[in-house]
Amino acid sequence: xxxxxxxxxxxxxxxxxxxxxxxxxxxxxxxxxxxxxxxxxxxxxxxxxxxxxxxxxxxxxxxxxxxxxxxxxxxxxxxxxxxxxxxxxxxxxxxxxxxxxxxxxxxxxxxxxxxxxxxxxxxxxxxxxxxxxxxxxxxxxxxxxxxxxxxxxxxxxxxxxxxxxxxxxxxxxxxxxxxxxxxxxxxxxxxxxxxxxxxxxxxxxxxxxxxxxxxxxxxxxxxxxxxxxxxxxxxxxxxxxxxxxxxxxxxxxxxxxxxxxxxxxxxxxxxxxxxxxxxxxxxxxxxxxxxxxxxxxxxxxxxxxxxxxxxxxxxxxxxxxxxxxxxxxxxxxxxxxxxxxxxxxxxxxxxxxxxxxxxxxxxxxxxxxxxxxxxxxxxxxxxxxxxxxxxxxxxxxxxxxxxxxxxxxxxxxxxxxxxxxxxxxxxxxxxxxxxxxxxxxxxxxxxxxxxxxxxxxxxxxxxxxxxxxxxxxxxxxxxxxxxxxxxxxxxxxxxxxxxxxxxxxxxxxxxxxxxxxxxxxxxxxxxxxxxxxxxxxxxxxxxxxxxxxxxxxxxxxxxxxxxxxxxxxxxxxxxxxxxxxxxxxxxxxxxxxxxxxxxxxxxxxxxxxxxxxxxxxxxxxxxxxxxxxxxxxxxxxxxxxxxxxxxxxxxxxxxxxxxxxxxxxxxxxxxxxxxxxxxxxxxxxxxxxxxxxxxxxxxxxxxxxxxxxxxxxxxxxxxxxxxxxxxxxxxxxxxxxxxxxxxxxxxxxxxxxxxxxxxxxxxxxxxxxxxxxxxxxxxxxxxxxxxxxxxxxxxxxxxxxxxxxxxxxxxxxxxxxxxxxxxxxxxxxxxxxxxxxxxxxxxxxxxxxx
Length: 850
Prior knowledge:
The longest helix has 22 residues, at 331-352. 24% of the residues lie in helices and 24% in strands. With 850 residues, it is of the alpha+beta class. Strands 1, 2, 5, 6, 7, 9, 16 and 18 form an 8-stranded antiparallel beta sheet that branches. Strands 8, 10, 11, 12, 13, 14, 15 and 17 form an 8-stranded antiparallel beta sheet that branches. Keywords: Dioxygenase, Iron, Metal-binding, Oxidoreductase, Vitamin C.
């Protein structure tokens, strides 16, 4: 029977294969329904007429999950490698990998291999089932499969998600012997939106109309009409254009099988190109897809947004595979093929937007060893679920897939300088940690970290390396050197000790090692807004992590298509201004400042005429950075433009903001600014000045009708057994007496600093307007104080460790609560004593342990 190609259904009654599967399931033969005579006849008829067929229920659910787990184990234990492209008829020519074109990881097995961490229980069974089916189909009348003489090993495949795909291709483009492709899917939990569908392209004969006589070989010119279909778009979301382009609209053929469209052929005389049918097949668990391997069935794998598992077998035509393997390529043929592949790589870059550097290798025979061409450099070994690739020739990028919902704060990156090992901590990794030996010449200070949320969550770590030097010219006479000793095992995880120049700048135990050579990433500039238009800003009120700031910040700069890259030092530094911007948007703080602005007297504006945004008749909000230090807050002021981000993220009404950096540890006249006490303009809406004095002395000069806000970053006043609280107490009392001035404080940890600070403010009778909470914009660097492991500086702590991290927690107070403080008859001296005693009691065992 040769069925009309416009219908894969059975006379409009329904899918005949579905009917047969149901029939034999009711008869108790569900596991082998596809081996029954009438099932074999229907499968063969579809394969011979349409060149491909979908067989559901080929594996049971238990077998599907078992085989999926076996391949996942192989992947996680490093037994799969990036899928290769090209290779020659006999597999003895040049190969290359290019993850933007083919993003899967593959391994070739027959189920007898003894691999670490893998037990092949189900793979041999699945292969025998496929062999049985193909053998039975070969016995059907007029079956092409009668010439099958052998098959390949099983290619076990994982598409790791993250939009991994495989662009349109043909399995047998040059007579390599492949006759039939058998593709077994192992995704029992697959659902719409996970991606990874197989898209099949089939050309029809005829005069360009869809109602053609049958399917034929596809040619490149006809397939060009399908190039408008983005491989990253799932079926149903394609923009197919007008009826002049589409002959038959989308329709469902079976569960998870959809004819996306049939595209008209044509040309000037309606015969230049053939109609092309596009069919999408979902990778449902237990599903087997058979299709002809040659130009009759070009196909691609659409972008996978979740891990996708499969096994592929190829069945070979006896005469063709014998001819393909008869003789190796000559030197001239090999050179011609390498030149062709070079052109192909450039074509892939232009057509598919591929940006990753290809890895090219060659071998002289099918049994020979693969060797690099010398134009690329090896990538470091990474755990199975991770990937590594070179970008721009000298940047190694390591990508770690993350479970849904993972936050930036859940991940960490550091370098063990003693062994040049990159240590990545992230959920989903084995024991939540991965160690990657950095390539020779890696710049350990150039680490950039990005949390990608779309299309799937992943942590991308980039490290710059020295450019690859050209291989030296061999000398005529060489002496064979002994084989190199095996590389030693990577040492256990160690912490990175703080340098001698490190300064204690985040309260208890916190350390940020900043110097004049520290690399603070430059943020893209935001174009000036048009006159009369409202500033856009970044809504941080309900932010959950850094990505909520970074993505919008790049969009404000018109760089939404760029990959934001920030060094750990940048995230440490930005934590200060972005936390301030977040605070300005919190309802308790914003309402307090709005009320203060209403009371501002116009006569006061002249006193602050040169501060803030210089709008005539307005007064800026004066933000006092209390307890500022030349090693942190002032360091950022002198060496970065990060403080400008306050009004970029949180634009203020007319008047702008003036930042006053106040404390005994600032440098009033620095090498960068001889007159730091004088205001300097940071941007059109923000000014700054530095004052070496106490907070109460500075605020005493700020009139009561000027909007005022106090911010203390990582003051540490809750620790120190009460000593720090005693020193801070007079400033805190004076701050609370300014009843219209909100005061925001951050703490580096919750077991000592935050605990003590809350005790201090409760003893003073302060009114909380922002309750204590974890800060979504805390710094990147953690300092480990105690617990399992050695103390030191790391990007993330482990369970059981006590840590400090700049700006880890945040809260805000404003004035005294009703009936507390002075209204309760307490003097300033009594309040200061209460504050010190409260901190002393709260510290207790936590401080003693530190």
